[in-house]
Give the backbone structure.
Amino acid sequence: MGIETRMVKTTKGVSWLLKRDVIIGAILFLLALVPRAVGLNVFLTTDEPIWIRQSLNFFTGLLERDYTKTFHYAQPGVTTMWAGVMGLWTKYLLTAQTGSGGLAEFLKAVPAQPVAVDYLLFVRFPTVLLTSLCVVGVYFFVKKLFNPQIALLSALLLAFDPYYLAHSRFIHQDALVTSFMILSVLSFLVYLGQGRSWPYLVFSALMAGLAFLTKSPALFLGAYLGLLVLAGHSTRLMTGYWPHLRHRRVVQGRKIAGDVWVLAVWGLMACTLFILLWPVMWVDPLGTISRVLGEALSLASQVHGKNNFFMGQPVGDPGLLFYPVVTLFKLTPLTLGGLLAFIGFWVRGLRERRNRSLTAQQLHSLALVVFALSFTAIISLGADKSDRYNLPIFPALDILAAVGLYDLAGSIKSLVPRRLPSLKGWPGASVRAVGLSLVLTLQGGPTLAHYPYYLSYFNPLLGGGPQAARTIIVGWGNGLDEAARYLNSKENATELRAASWYYGSFAPFFVGQSWPLSKRNLYWQDVDYAVLYLNGVQRLLPNPDIVGYFRSLEPEHTVRFRGLEYAWVYKVPRPLPDVLLPMQHVQRVELGDQILFLGYDIEDEPFQSEGKLEVTLYWQALRAMGEDYIVYLKLVNSVYHIWGQQEGRPFYDGMPTNTWQAGQKIKDRRELEILPGTPPGLYHIEVILQALYTDQVLGPRDGGGLLLGPIEIPRREPPASTSLDIEHPQEVILGDKVRLLGYNMESGFRSGDGIHLTLFWQCLEEMDRDYTVFTHLIDEQGIIWGQKDNPPVDGFYPTSQWEMGEILRDQYDLVISPDAPPGQYW
């Protein structure tokens, strides 16, 4: 009877514990879910429109069985797209009408650019649900690794962690990969520390597979877990994970083989899930893996201009301090305090256990410390950095902070009876309730105060948002919705036109017409308002001129939140100042009374590889025209020698001038091929408009063509001799310094005519003197009947500047004397 009574009591105890865990899990789930699920359609981050479009492509590919559509660039993003698919499917089931054409027609009708706000709730909610479940999962795993109190603290810190909470509300990768990675790590730690139960290994592998499907940096998990297993071979350190090492000798080779087998099974399960859930892997597995790894490495190694902001200035790669600084700004004071307490107690614990093995809890803590530090180190090596890339370490930091807070509470509890004897009789439940209330107040209160813009939370101990804006990049679209709502409040809102930085986050909330804020687009749309955003102002984007001009003005409206200005609304002046016009070079010239030339752009990057200048001309029709004008471009120097030319109707022959309407503006892109061997130096481009059928030239009022420039042509690799088109090869070496390769000659060869002579030189060695070229037209007696004597290239490229191996084209114009008699000349 005694044994049966004890068994009944034990069964009841286990049943009560299970019920308690279920209740705690349900409460944690609700605490995590509510702040994530409320207000999902208030604003839109910059990248979410991309993922909504990708989800549409993914869903369409599944329906059409065209699985190549399920591939997305360098980051797999598969779980993100599956989340979008689930949201779109739910939206379809709830809103589709009978006879509406079915799911395929529904997907075609989904507005993805700009995104329709009423879709946000559906495509975001799967992420909300998964991250809320992650909070519950963290509780149960941490409970097995530490104790119920630390587990509850960890779950509460994570549930109200403003950084994790903010990203949990988006259709994006970072919150999902963070959730899958921490669950994989914790499950693997439970597997190592509690008898190597296979269900934990399987769960860890499945979570790793989902992490791999989400974002390529999750591949770090394989190396990290391998490091954990490898550390297990240090028997003195890891007896907490392999307790049998204390009692019996194990053959090292057999132990290593067993661990390798465990990792292999773990990896096989993760990869199997990776293949099963990514349809493109069914049709092109090797190509997909190659593209993911190749593009991920390329992306990590590229610096995209000064596209980041750190320590008060725009930068390319902000360096190794970037993520530590970002982490400090994203931590809450409570989490930071817990981490400091953890470090203090950890150091004290190591001193006290100087010659003994670490406890299991110390090993678990050490494993999480290694995870956070090593992941930060890995992502710091990449040139492409963003503040959200370090989100996966935050659950680990919250758990470590919970350990520190628990140890701190234990120390305080041991001191209280001595300092305050009246509190000695307080029940433990009351103390725990007070402690949890403090955690909810200190962590949840400040976080929820930032609703719905949780991204605007920055550690107040470091100066909060204002100091963060002076130190790191701030803003991901939050606040642009308020700018749109301000413009919507105007009487003529639907007729307004606005250009905004982060257009995708602004346009869905604006009832008028909107365009991206860009120097290339602002002028053409004749917008009424320009909306600048903090993120762009920090990096001087879209253009330093635009940012500098508008920031010098008083904004009509400013969007502020928690002491920080996020967006500024400006009335666009009329007429537009030159600094806001889209062209690099403003040059207004009237061509008769028909066309206004506005300016031009020069793009010389293709010159080094292709020998071409990309020229963009900007035109405006002053009135409708009956003439079809051809545009002629000539690259000339100051003596009007031609070094390259191009001709054709505007816009690749696609917009003849006789089709232009009055007031119409045209952006006319052209490629001007420069003659091989053209020396480096300053040139101009002459632009001439000539009627196709009447030979009428449409020029400026002072006559002649338009001159654009000056334009600097840089030095480049010597051209192949075959590309020079030398009509008369004639190889002559002059003083071992210069080789004449040959010449071309154009003339009518009559008395009084001109001769255009092109010489081709090759520099054999560098010269410290400037030489002059004498070109004489002589008869059989050596009498000169025409001459042109000057340094090479009309004196603009003296021989002292030539480089060895350089090949040059050199032009001369001689006039044949009117008195020259017929005969043979040289």
About this structure: The two ends are 131 Å apart (CA to CA). The chain has 25 helices and 22 strands. The longest strand covers residues 681-691. Confidence is low (pLDDT under 50) at residues 235-251, 423-428.
